[in-house]
């Protein structure tokens, strides 16, 4: 019964992932249309700033999500430490925790810098685009970020349920 339930949940998550991937493809198409419009109306150096921002948006958000996920896994492992855990493993977990915490703080700084760059790019685009076009741009940035977060979350859940299912199937003779 439990295996059946896990398989069902996994199937549901995989279907959700397909929907998110479809939305991501639609978002990418809107991004290409927006890019063409920005290329047409902006000066080359302004277009370059826009392109760098859009490229860095995905990288920085993905980095933050990845580091947060890895940090959560290390914190979970640290919670499972008990009297039987050897000192080397405890030290390794503590070092990884410190390193990932520092890296996540650095990534947060990158995100703050990216947010400032977004305001600069918005200011540039405001000179050329209509209010509706500017709203479309902002919605695109928001949706792109949301989709990245949803994708990462679904991937983590799918990975977790696959591991649970695998462990359960191995435990049954």
TrEMBL record:
InterPro entries: ASD2_dom, Shroom_fam. One of its GO terms (molecular function) is actin filament binding. The keyword Cytoplasm applies. Pfam families: ASD2 (PF08687). GO terms for cellular component: adherens junction; apical junction complex; apical plasma membrane; cortical actin cytoskeleton. Keywords: Coiled coil, Cytoplasm, Cytoskeleton. It is found in: Cytoplasm, Cytoskeleton. Its main location: cytoplasm. Belongs to the shroom family. This is SHRM1 protein. The gene is Shroom1_0.
């Amino acid at each position: 019964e439990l295996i059946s339930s896990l398989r069902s949940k996994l199937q549901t998550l995989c279907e959700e992932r397909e929907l998110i991937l479809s939305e991501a493809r639609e978002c990418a198409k809107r991004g290409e249309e927006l890019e063409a419009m920005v290329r047409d109306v902006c000066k080359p150096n302004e277009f370059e700033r826009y392109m760098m921002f859009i490229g860095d948006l995905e990288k920085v958000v993905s980095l933050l999500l990845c580091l947060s996920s890895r940090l959560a896994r290390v914190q979970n492992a640290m919670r499972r430490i008990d009297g039987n855990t050897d000192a080397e493993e405890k030290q390794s977990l503590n070092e990884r925790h410190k390193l990932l915490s520092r890296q996540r703080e650095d990534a947060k700084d990158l995100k703050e810098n990216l947010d400032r760059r977004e305001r600069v790019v918005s200011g540039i685009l405001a000179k050329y685009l209509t209010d509706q076009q500017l709203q479309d741009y902002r919605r695109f940035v928001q949706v792109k970020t949301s989709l990245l977060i949803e994708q990462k979350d679904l991937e983590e859940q799918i990975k977790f349920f696959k591991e649970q299912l695998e462990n359960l199937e191995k435990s049954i003779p």
